[in-house]
């Protein structure tokens, strides 16, 4: 009898506001716990603040550092191509600005922003989900949304057994939740504030339109308009699906209201459209006319993998597709909320295979309606003729299976912290060299280093880095830099003069041959900094 009372209290708490609040506050904290541990137990090393894909995040830090220094518009410091400060990135402008104004370390602001945006997303998602789910199913919906994932763990087990790495050309054969962080909420929190920021804004955009129409009020539309402007100037790929889905929501309400249109609603859509177009036109102008960023747009090709990889990446959440399709014959009888979620899910999935060079990016957002339909599938399963003693544990088991990959990733991240993975923990020698660069270079200088060091130095440098990125550096320049440092060929003097290089950073442990081949050139340069592992020279 006591055990039944305890179970009843647990069930009651699970279905309560307090239970949902705990989920929203606790899940991001658990996901980010390895990062907190990284800072607390870094020892003599420097913890970068990330545990996956350091390449892209060094680029993000480059933008934040510029904002920290007081710039509103950014340079592309990943290349030495002369160009104007024109690019605006609202998120990194905000994070860097907060860091500069409050004298907070960028790493601290970066980490805290992940948590804050994740919690705000949780509350926004709660408001959206409660329009279609109630009671314990609403709590289940929040869990499925914030932790739901696919068969990535099984893909990792296969990788371990077979020896096939989840990287390079073979990467796209593995479940998407292993290598597409924007695919799920938990991995967006794990990876970068940019993705969870985008998820938050997307929910605010659609939620603002929904409540603006429902209440026939201008204020919710204003929230949507501001949100679409912010996302247009931070993750502009999302504007394509947002345009189609927003228009679908507009049509849904027009049909339901027999095309009735109040002026407050009209001005709401007008404001939304103006700010949408303003961000789109500005981004298009900069990416087409600014030589420092046009290359980025040209090289940023992201095509989607086979749809089976997507389904494997969503795993059991993919049952939401079945639930959605099963409901389509009764589309007219659905409430407007489910109609919208159906259109969102199917339309955005189709757009992912549209003829855009970056259509893989359209996967960001799909997991929101998919998680809802997954929970509706579980709800349908619970109502079958099978005994409740069987159906409810089965629903719980299916839900828990979707948590396996995030559980593995948290454990793997703790493992990276424990071994001080060299990709994310820099030696004291490296940090001293990068710190010297941070304090002594300006945007009038040009830094040359090896491929790995170039990307790492990008995070700290106020000067353009000749080969700072695979995406934003001309391929010929990057290849020549790789030849100079990796193969230690002659030609450094001519290359440095051609690229207007003012400073060179050399890793003595990894590029000893480069130093011996170019000894005369380096001897004629002024050594500004040197320790056991690095030498930093100014070219005469």
Which features characterize this protein?
single chain; 540 residues; mainly alpha; 2 domains; two-stranded antiparallel ribbon; 25 helices; globular
Explain how this protein is built.
With 540 residues, the chain is mainly α. It is 63% helix and 4% strand. It has 2 domains: 118-415, no CATH class; 425-538. Strands 3-4-6-5 form a 4-stranded mixed β-sheet, with helices on one face. Strands 1-2 form a two-stranded antiparallel sheet. β5 (526-530) and β6 (534-538) form a beta hairpin. α3 crosses α4 (90-102). The protein is globular. The mean pLDDT is 93.
Overall average pLDDT: 93
Q: Given the helix and strand composition, which structural class is it?
A: mainly alpha
Distance between the termini: 85 Å
Cross-sheet strand order for the largest sheet: 3-4-6-5
The percentage of residues in β strands lies in under 5%
Query: How many helical stretches?
Result: 25
Low-confidence stretches: none
- How is the biggest beta sheet arranged? 4 strands, mixed
Q: Tell me the number of structural domains.
A: 2
Regarding quaternary structure, how should these chains be classified?
single chain
Helix content: 55-70%
Query: How many extended strands?
Result: 6
The shape, in one word, is globular
Question: What Rg is obtained from the alpha carbons, in whole angstroms?
Answer: 25 Å
């Amino acid at each position: 009898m006591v055990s039944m009372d305890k179970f009843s209290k647990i069930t009651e708490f699970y279905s309560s506001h307090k239970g949902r609040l705990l989920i929203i506050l606790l899940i991001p904290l658990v996901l980010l716990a390895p990062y907190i541990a990284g800072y607390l137990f870094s020892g003599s090393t420097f913890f970068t603040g990330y545990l996956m894909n350091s390449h892209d995040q060094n680029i993000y830090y480059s933008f934040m550092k510029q904002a920290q220094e007081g710039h509103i518009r950014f340079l592309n410091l990943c290349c030495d191509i002369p160009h104007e400060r024109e690019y605006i990135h609202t998120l990194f402008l905000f994070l860097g600005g907060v860091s500069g104004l409050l004298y907070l370390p960028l790493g601290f602001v970066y980490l805290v922003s992940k948590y804050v945006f994740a919690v705000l997303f949780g509350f926004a998602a709660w408001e959206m989900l409660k329009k279609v789910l109630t009671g314990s199913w609403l709590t289940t919906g929040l869990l499925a949304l914030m932790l739901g994932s696919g068969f990535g763990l099984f893909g990792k087990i296969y990788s371990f057994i077979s020896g096939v790495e989840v990287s390079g050309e073979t990467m796209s054969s593995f479940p998407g939740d292993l290598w597409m962080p924007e695919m799920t909420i938990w991995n967006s929190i794990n990876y970068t504030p940019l993705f969870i920021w985008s998820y938050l804004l997307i929910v605010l955009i659609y939620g603002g339109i929904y409540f603006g129409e429902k209440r026939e009020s201008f204020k919710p539309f204003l929230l949507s308009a501001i949100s679409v402007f912010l996302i247009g100037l931070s993750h502009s790929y999302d504007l394509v699906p947002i345009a189609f889905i927003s228009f679908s929501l507009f049509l849904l309400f027009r049909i339901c209201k027999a095309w009735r249109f109040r002026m407050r609603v009209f001005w709401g859509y007008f404001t939304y459209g103006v700010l949408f177009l303003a961000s789109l036109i500005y981004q298009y102008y900069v990416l087409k006319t600014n030589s420092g960023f046009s290359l980025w747009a040209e090289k940023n090709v992201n095509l989607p993998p086979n749809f089976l990889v997507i389904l494997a990446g969503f795993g059991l959440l993919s049952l939401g597709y079945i639930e959605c399709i099963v409901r389509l014959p009764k589309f007219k009888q659905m409430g407007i909320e489910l109609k919208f979620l159906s259109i969102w899910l199917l339309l955005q999935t189709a757009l992912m295979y549209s003829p855009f060079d970056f259509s893989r990016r359209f996967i960001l957002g799909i997991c929101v309606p998919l998680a809802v339909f997954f929970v509706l599938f579980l709800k349908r399963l619970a109502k079958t003729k099978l005994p409740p003693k069987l159906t409810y544990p089965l629903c719980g088991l299916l839900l828990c299976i979707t948590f396996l990959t995030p559980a593995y990733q948290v454990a793997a991240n703790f493992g990276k912290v424990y071994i001080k993975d060299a990709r994310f923990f820099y030696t004291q020698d490296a940090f001293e060299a990068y710190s010297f660069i941070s304090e002594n270079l300006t945007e009038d200088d040009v830094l040359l280093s090896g491929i790995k060091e170039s990307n790492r130095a990008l995070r700290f440098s106020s000067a353009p880095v000749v080969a700072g990125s695979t995406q934003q550096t001309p391929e010929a320049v990057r290849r020549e830099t790789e030849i100079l440092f990796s193969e230690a060929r002659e030609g450094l003097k001519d290359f440095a003069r051609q690229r207007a290089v003012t400073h060179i950073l050399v890793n003595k442990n990894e590029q000893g041959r480069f130093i011996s081949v170019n000894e005369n050139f380096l001897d004629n340069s002024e050594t500004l900094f040197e320790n056991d592992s690095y030498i930093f020279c100014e070219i005469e």
